[in-house]
Here is the input.
Amino acid sequence: MMPEQTAYSHLVVLPVAIPLAGIALTLLVRGNRRIQGLLAFASMFLAFATSVWLLVEVWLSGEPIVFHMGGFSGPFGITLVGDLLSCVMAVMSQLVLAAGILYGTGCRDKCAQYPTFYPLFLALGLGLTGAMLTGDVFNLFVFAELVVISGAVLTAISDDKKGTEAAYKYFYISQFAAMILLIACGCLYASYGTLNMADLAERIADDPDRPLLPIAIVLFLVSMMVKSAVMPFHFWQPDFHTAAPTPVHAVLSSVVVKLGIYGFLRMTTLLFPHEAEAIQTSLIVLGSIGAVFGGLGAAGTYDAKRMLAYSTLGQLGFIIIAVGWHTPLALAAAIIFAFNHSLIKAAMLMLAGAVGSRAPVKTAEFSRIIGLGRTVPLAGVLFIIGGMALAGLPPTNGFISKLAVFRSGLEVGGYYPLIFLAVASLVSLIYVSRAFQLIWLQPIPEDVTPKEKGDLLVAPLSLISLCLLLGLWAQPLVELGHDTATWMLEHRSDYIDAVLDSRDRFFEQTWEPPPSPLDPQQAPNDTGAQP
Amino acid sequence: MELLIAAGIGLMMAVGVYQVLRRNLIRSAIGLIIISNAIHLLLIYAGAYRGVVAPYAFEWAAEGRSDALPQVLVLTAIVIAMGGFSLVLGMIYIFGVRYRTGDMDKVDQLKY
Here is the structure.
């Protein structure tokens, strides 16, 4: 029996299916790089538009949209679930991915001219969106592996000679994280016999004392921490992100690390709410350390892109602490911060890369790009605005997100983490102003002749104007964050019901066990395929 | 039997981790594939779990049969592991061309 699908339930497939089609199409036109880039951008932008449509649909109706792949109902088949959290995350990732591809089309890196650059980029987007929209733990593993493999290849082909080594390092660590996630899947399956998130949530709530469950939780947590480079698992992150080509770096450092944040939110609100306190405590402690460590690392480094990679480590600390506080306000703050940070960080990285592309040999090391910003004054203006947003100064969206985090911290009374966050904020102001001073205010050294043409500034310009817009007119995003947080905390059963609804109808209406082929009394011709 | 398989998987994990930690690039790649094989065995074994019936199986189907779903999962996981392994081999080839070595300590551009 086909589970009942509403008219809109196919909508949740589109953000995943369009990049998939885009991969095939861009491979077909691999002869012409210009058409390939435009096609890749068009398909990613189309996917972004459909995920916005999905978000609006889900937000207005307040009900998650569920699609059962292949018509297998309930927990038997693969489900794609678009609830508010998934949709916000998908919109965020696809917005930055589209901007990254746009930057890639105007980018002067050699690797952007490889015929497989855009297909791999789309595969990265496909994996990221799929991991956020899927309702199945094993599917999460598959999509996350897609992200890891395509990200590693994109970095390995980078112009930077260190790219292959960084990709090798990242790939080993991520492969171990993926294996850990696979062991967690095995533990969960052995204990509960299902991998569907909604079904798992229901079964774990019924029987939280299975001996393998704590192991599964710890393994899941660790693999998500490796994905988002939380403090003790961050060693690969600065190297890998610095060596990646600029458009890829912008995506890796802003949205790919949010996959772990998504995992934390799912774990604490849906899958393991009874163990949430232990997870939250570890997140708060690691986030506090990570925020200060990332800030100091960024302040002490020698390369603009590396500085921003370290800064991601610090800013993720803010989000993780907010996830750890786990009140409605704090979760809303986490989502708002995640969304805003993606836009800011992607734009800043693109600006750093655009200035670096003016250097005689493309690099982002401070010693080699001193004063080169003078050739691109527009990038300087954008960098100031982005830097203000990164440090959290008023007319930008960074201010809104930091305000939300600090307010939720005061409400919870988490004063020690707040001290760490305040220090990290100050440090971020220091490193941003240092970078600006070095790149734009110093005179150009006499022996350096900057290139006439560099990367185009369309993508960072649009992202920064979005940052300003979301700072001046913050209400929609704040409201969305609040709705998502309250939905996650109070309507947990809605998610479960929406996915398992078709299972219940299936058992009510048609289910009758087929006759056993092992029993000679009954007809042997029925093979008894499982539902 | 349970104990034997558990010990076997543990031994495979140990061998794999030992190989991964060696300083030879090719050996560490082999270690990676040994570890993923150990984890695939673990997954298959999660489906052959006796004592608890798989939740959506029919009663007769659960008698004396393994759950089929983990085997499907393992098929997918094998394909993914193969993709990852070939990528690792490709990168090792590049190191071989670029640095003329299989020794991890000599691939050292990231050491500042």
User: Anything to note?
Assistant: The first helix of chain A runs from residue 14 to 28. The radius of gyration of chain A is 23 Å. The CA atoms of residues 382 and 465 of chain A lie 9 Å apart. The beta strands of chain A are 65-68, 79-82.
